[in-house]
Structure formats: structure tokens, C-alpha cells
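For the sake of transparency, this paper describes our internal protein records without simplification. An entry from our holdings is shown next, in its original layout:
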Amino acid sequence: MCVFLSLEINEICCAVSDGRSLLLSACLVESTEARLLERDVLASRVREVEEENRQIRLQLSQSQGLAAQPVEGNYGNQQWAASADTGPEDVENTAEERANHSECSRSPTAEKCELIHVACVCAGHNASRDVVTLVKSILFHRRNPLHFHFITDTVANQILSTLFQSWMVPSVQVSFYDADELKSEVSWIPNKHYSGIYGLMKLTLTKALPSNLSKVIVLDTDITFATDIAELWAIFRKFTGNQKQVIGLVENQSDWYLGNLWKNHKPWPALGRGFNTGVILLYLERLRRIGWEQMWRLTAERELMSMLSTSLADQVIHWNSPKKLRVKNKHVEFFRNLYLTFLEYDGNLLRRELFGCPSQASSESTELQHALEELDEDDQCYDFRRERIMVHRVHLYFLQYEYTPTDDGTDVTLVAQLSMDRLQMLEAICKHWEGPISLALYMSDAEAQQFLRYAQASEVLKNRKNVGYHIVYKEGQFYPVNLVRNVALRNVNTPYVFLTDVDFLPVYGLYDYLRKSIVQLDMANTKKALVVPAFETLRYRLSFPKSKAELLSMLDMGTLYTFRYHVWTKGHAPTNYAKWRTATTPYKVEWEADFEPYVVVRRDCPEYDQRFVGFGWNKVSHIIELDAQEYDLIVLPNAFMIHMPHAPSFDISKFRSSPSYRYCLTTLKDEFHQDLSRKYGSAALKYLTAQRNI
């Protein structure tokens, strides 16, 4: 007997009355008898399923140490005990295993090295961040190769493609499909759910995914796994061989869906709890054979005549969402801790090989391996050279980002990098600079979550959408400062960039002043680097000067100083501060050894040299590249920035105290000059000569 269980568009299905099985079979929509089933038959079937699930929940609640056991032995299997028949392979546990687990039987796993396919619909910045926790939990438990299929919008595609490419996890394949091409398939369905049109795209997977893909596990982005996904994949074996079982679902577990928690509580249009589409097993090959695309469309059209719109989509208590952490549940602590564990788990630890399962290495990993093999481990500077070729995980646009290009083509982005100890500067920078900002943050997974909480709690930061935050995850012993800078530089959306450091505050109005200067100095057609003079204060509380006149007054009073004049005069002396005091028009300065000004240049400027890590020569080398490529250094007369005081970084302390660190930095400088000579010929001799004369 075939029974229609759910009126929600996302969960159109029919269930076979075969005891506890909720593996779903295809129903012929055209069948007049199926459409005219009487309500009492429906209600009777729902009551049977409700009673079965009640008994299962009762058994689970009586199990010893429920919350302390692995999830496959309790809550996780609670769902799947209600969604799959028990097979003979489920009772092969040893006596010891049976003693350590609840009465719920363990599902069979997939074949060794069998490729498991997983599909997700993911759109936007927030969903892209959520899906990382899901992927971590899958990778942590998995023992099989995986192929992720992501149906994404443009934003999620950029974020996730960069993340997986830089993550370089062995035996993991990733494919992307354009969600925009599928919108027309479901956009005609009225939908009130917050997931919007993307919550309905699971209906189109038979069309969206490759035609030769026969089976797939479909997941919401807000799920956390507590056991090997292979156990879920193995349930496909329980689908009968008569080709009629095509979809695997589980009943919603929460009483919220019953609609009787308070007066006028009607969240769900189906009888009973309905079925949860947060986890779906799709037998794609069979679905295509029975004409799934036509089937769901006809059913949707018929039901919308009475429902008018869909109100629920694909959300249940999946425990991979901040709001769901506040749900009241007797297992809440277990699930909260499980979610938070993977939220902050070091993703670098998941780059482990699957022993016994051969896989073809990507071209990127092959190149990396060859580069590592060419290094001499006995080299005193081996760690520095290894850092240069190390691939760090990168998560672009960690928070919501919105940018609208200007019409005049003069827009400029402030570009900087920072670590956890500079977070306190972000609010002040956003107040001083109203234009777009690109920030690369060097952090661990746990620190990235601390930053997220900090940004979400800040009224200043959460209201600024034109700031792109890009996480470069920590790895290795050094701070790869120029790699982090390059991540921020590569992800700029404006024609011009202001290359600065996060501990500098620009003068109010600098954004507009730079845009005017870009036009006046014809930067679109000339190679210029506009120098913004740098100053510093030793006071943590500073009445910030609103004009050049105020700054000069504070300079004369000793409240401000030219930047690093007392410890590193050569770094900014070529700016010619004496001339700047009275200058009213831009003036050109010449390059000098160790000059490291903060500049505004076109976006297509040279990148920073990534061999320089930590403290020392990271900006100097960049200015040399600009000069070698014949950029004119132009000082702006009414621009300035002030360095705010802070504790010295760890790498500065290391540089000052370690002879080995200084030796390797000198070695890297020499190699940099050699590369310049090969690249620019005799024109590069002045840089080497100037360096030797220091």
C-alpha cells in the first residue's frame, strides 16, 4: 500500500507499509486511487509509525550512559533504527562491543575504499562557513574516499573552491554545480521559509548531478556527524531489489512538528511529525527511471492549489547552528559539545592519508611534494625555505560581504593583515576609513571562532558589510606575513589598493582624498605609488588630529613622532618629512635602501615576496619590486597615518634574540637580490650595491 505522508514540497514522498521501514518507494502521481486515499487510512498509518518511534525512544532512554556513548550507539542510531530494517550483518558485534553499547544495533559500513558521494546545496557567506563544520565532522570519522558535490551560488563557489584547493585533503574530490542554472526549476514555487529558493533545490538533484551518478547522500549544511558516514551509505544496501525503493528519510524527532505545544501552533502541514530532509539517501538511478522530475512537479502543482505556499523546508535540530544550541533537550550537552568540538577543530589534522586506499594525487599536491623533496634538510635555513612553499588553508569572506563598484573607476581598498592580538584595532579602522577593506587574518580554527563572536558582538563591525575578512589558518612555526598580505591583496574588488598595516589609523577623510588624488595624478595611465606619510604616538589615549595643521602642532609638542625615527630611521626617512611640513602639492622622492613606505597603487601591482616571513624585510622587498618596475614614488602633501602603540610581536622578539634567525634573513636577502638580477639584469645592481653599503 502506498501512503502520501507529507504535503511539504521539499518532502513529497510515499512510504511502503512494511513494518518499520521508511525507505521510500515511488508512487505514480497519476494514480487516482492514491490521490483519493481517505484521511482515516492516512491517520491510521501515521499512528502506527508514531507508536513504533515511541517504543524506540523509550528503549533508548533506558540505555545506560546514553549521553556518554558514541552517537552511533544512541541518538544517532535512534533516527536510523526508525528508518531501516535490521539486517543479519548488524548483529556481528562481539560480546565486548555489545556490552559497551546500547541495544541499538550498529549499521553495516561501506566496502573498503568504496567512493562515497555527498551532495549539499550551499549559498552565501554564512552557509559556506557552516558547511566547513559539517565537512570536518565527516573527515574526522571517515575511512573511505569521498566525493563532495556542491550546488552553489557564485559566492559559495569562490569560498569553497579556494578552501578545498588549499586544504588539500587526500582521497577527497570536490565538484561544483551552478545553482543559478537550477533556479528556474523551483522559482515558481511560493516559499515562506528563510532558506528561500535554495531549500527547494534538492528536488532537482536528479537533473543537476551527473547522469552516471547512481547514489548520493544529501545533507543540509547545518549537520554534524558523530560517526562514520559509511554507516549511512551502507543503508543503500537495504533498498529492495525491486527498483521501487528510491528515497531514504527519517521521521522528525521533535514534538514541535506535531503542532500541539501551544495554542494555535501549526508549524507543519502534514499528519504527524512529517519527514526530515536534512539527511536524504537518493537512489538517483532509480529516480530517473521512474520520472522523478515530472512526478514532483505534478504533485507540487496539485498541493499548491490548497496550500498556496510552502512554509517549511529542510531544517531540524541538526546541532550545527548557533540558534540550535539553545534548544532544550536532555542530550543538549552532548550535542553542543560535539558541535563545538568540530567548530574549533584544527582542520590541518584532517589532511591524513587513507592507508590501503590508493588515490590519485592532485597536481597541486604533486608539485608541493616535488618542491619539498628538493629542499636540503641539513640546510640551516630549511624551515624558512619550507615555509615559502607551504600551502595554508584559506577561507575567503568569512563574514557577510557586500560591495557596489563606483561609477568613476577610482575606488580604493584598504589592504592589511592581522593576527588575534590586533583585533582591538578593527573598530577604530572602520571608523577612520569608510571605503572597502580587505583584511587577511592569520588564525587557528579556534581563534577564527573567537573572531566571529567578537565581530558579531560589535555594533561597528556587524554594520559594516564592505569589509572582506579572509582567514589564513595557522600552520608551521613562522608568521607568513607576506603570504597573508597577498591573500588580502588578491581578493580586492577595486582598481586601486592602499597597502597598510592594521596598527595604523588613517586621517579622517583619507578615503575621499585618495580617490581625488588618483584622478589628479592620472594613475590609470601611469605607474605611480602614492606615499602616505607615517607617524606614531606612544600614547594609548590620543586626541586624533583632524588636519595636517593639528598634526604638525602635536609633532612640535612631542605628542607625535615621525614613524620609527628612534629605532629605524632609514625605513621612512626618504619620505622627506621636512619637505612634507610645508608641501602643498605632491612631490616625487627617490628609492633608498630599506625604504618601506605605505603606498597606494593599482591593484595589478607586484605581490609581496613570500620568502620573507615574520619580522624583517617583508615590506622593503616589495618597495624594491615597485621601484624595479619603474613606479614613481609620489608623496601626498595632505595625507597621513598614525601608528598606535602595542606590545611587540613574537617574531620581532625572535629576530632580536636569535642569531640563526638573523643569519637566515641575511641569506634570504642575498637570494632575493640574485633573483632580481636574473629578472631585471643590470638595472638591479643598484639594490645590491645599496644593501652592501649599509
